[in-house]
Amino acid sequence: MAGLGTGAPIVKVYHEKSMILPDVARVLACLYEKNIKFDAHTGSYKSLLRLQATTHAPVPFYDGPTFLEESREICRYIAETYEHHGYPFLLGKDALERASIEQWLHHEEHTFNPPSRALFCHLAFPLDDEDDDIEMQKAKLEEVLEVYEQRLSESEFLAGNKFTLADLVHLPNSHYIKASGEGGGMIFLPGILGSRY
C-alpha cells in the first residue's frame, strides 16, 4: 500500500516497472498532495521508445468504477473528487483562480510539455540521430521558460501565491531535467521546485 492517507479512499495506479515516467509522477504527486491512499501496480510498456513520439504515456487509473488514463485529467479528477482531503488549494478557492489554473494547465500541456518531454525522453532513452532535434527542443524550452520566469517574478507560483495544480503538472519534467544536470543554465520554475519540493 502506498500513499500517505489514513482512512482516505484507495485508488489504483499502474506504471512501468523499470522507471516512473513523468505522466505517472504527475499523478503520484497529486495523490500525495491530496493525501489519498493508493495501490501502485507495475507492468511493462511494450516499447518505451515509442513514448517519445506520443504526447503522453497512458497511466491506467481506477477509482472504483471510474477509469482514466491521461495524467492531467486524472489530476483534475483527484483534485475535484477529493477536494476536502489533503492540500486544499490545488484548484484554487474561487472561479477566477480556477480559470487562471486552467490557463496554466493548457499552457503546460501545449507549450511547456512538448520540448521538456522531448528533452526528458532524450535523457532517458538517448538515440544517436536526434542531436539536432534536441538542440531545437532546448531552444523552444528556453523561450517558454522566459515566460515562466517573468510570471514567477510577479507571484510566488504560476496561478498566484499558492501552490496549485498549475504548478504540480510542471514538476515531473522540470525535476527530471534539472536532476539530470543536462538542463544547462536553464531555470526550472524556481518558485515551484525551490519552495515546494
UniProtKB/TrEMBL annotation:
It catalyses: RX + glutathione = an S-substituted glutathione + a halide anion + H(+). Residues 131-158 form a coiled coil. The keyword Transferase applies. SUPFAM superfamilies: GST C-terminal domain-like (SSF47616), Thioredoxin-like (SSF52833). Pfam families: GST_C. It comes from the Eukaryota. Keywords: Coiled coil, Transferase. Residues 94-197 form the GST C-terminal domain. GO terms for molecular function: glutathione binding; glutathione transferase activity. GO terms for cellular component: cytoplasm. Its EC number is 2.5.1.18. GO terms for biological process: glutathione metabolic process. PANTHER family: GLUTATHIONE S-TRANSFERASE RHO, GLUTATHIONE TRANSFERASE. This is glutathione transferase. It comes from Oryza meyeriana var. granulata.
